[in-house]
Write a structure and sequence with these properties.
By secondary structure, this protein is mainly alpha-helical. The chain has helices at residues 2-13, 28-46, 60-76, 80-83, 114-118, 121-139, 143-152, 160-173, and strands spanning 97-98, 103-104, 177-178, 189-190. It has one domain (2-177): Lysozyme (Orthogonal Bundle).
């Protein structure tokens, strides 16, 4: 269920057909398969028992997955050239940030090389989650503050990228969850009872 929810959010945020216009001009069918793989990777990392969710409540892991989806969308547009770090516009911050989550050089890379990160999408997701978790631990407060730290490097520096990520997160999440907000860590609950 969570993979299909993540995939639907990705399509809403940046439809796979737009990847035809990307630097690598990815055909729609290939982009759709890659979106499915990315949705599966986000779900796997968000539901990894070794990774604590960022949100409280019975849908805390789902909210974590959707926040990761919003961050990846804003940082990379889910573009293949950014994912594999290939091409003149694949890297951000004057070449210091790489991958779908635009992981900055230094501690955020946790000792992994650029080559390792650029060849492992699931590692990119995990590193993105770890950057968010460190921002939560360092800054406290709400997801908006963590995203300010993610985008600007400082907890309480208002940043348009944080507002854009929050708006996307809330728009895609409120259709399915109660308590999902950039102003709170929850508890987040499903709007409808879930069937297995």
């Amino acid at each position: 269920m969570i993979e299909s929810l993540i995939l639907a959010a990705m399509v809403e945020l940046n439809h796979p057909k737009h990847q035809q216009l990307s630097y690598l001009r990815e055909p729609v069918e290939e982009a759709e398969r890659r979106y499915e793989d990315l949705a599966a990777d986000i779900a796997e990392v968000a539901f990894d028992e070794n990774e604590a969710p960022l949100f409280d409540g019975p849908a805390g892991r789902e909210a974590t997955a959707l926040l990761l989806t919003a961050v990846a969308w804003h940082e990379s547009g889910f573009r293949k050239d950014v994912e594999i770090c290939e091409g003149p516009i694949a890297k951000g911050d004057e070449g210091r940030s790489i991958g779908l989550f635009q992981i900055m050089r230094g501690a955020n890379r946790q000792g992994y090389s650029a080559k390792q990160i650029c060849s492992d999408r699931k590692l990119q997701v995990r590193l993105g989650l770890h950057v968010l978790r460190r921002a939560k631990e360092r800054c406290g407060g709400s997801p908006l503050i963590w995203l300010q730290a993610y985008g600007a490097g400082r907890c309480h520096l208002p940043h348009s990228s944080a507002r854009n990520k929050c708006a996307a997160f809330e728009r895609i999440g409120r259709k399915h969850f109660d308590g999902l907000s950039c102003r709170s860590t929850g508890p987040v609950r499903f709007l409808k009872p879930q069937t297995t």
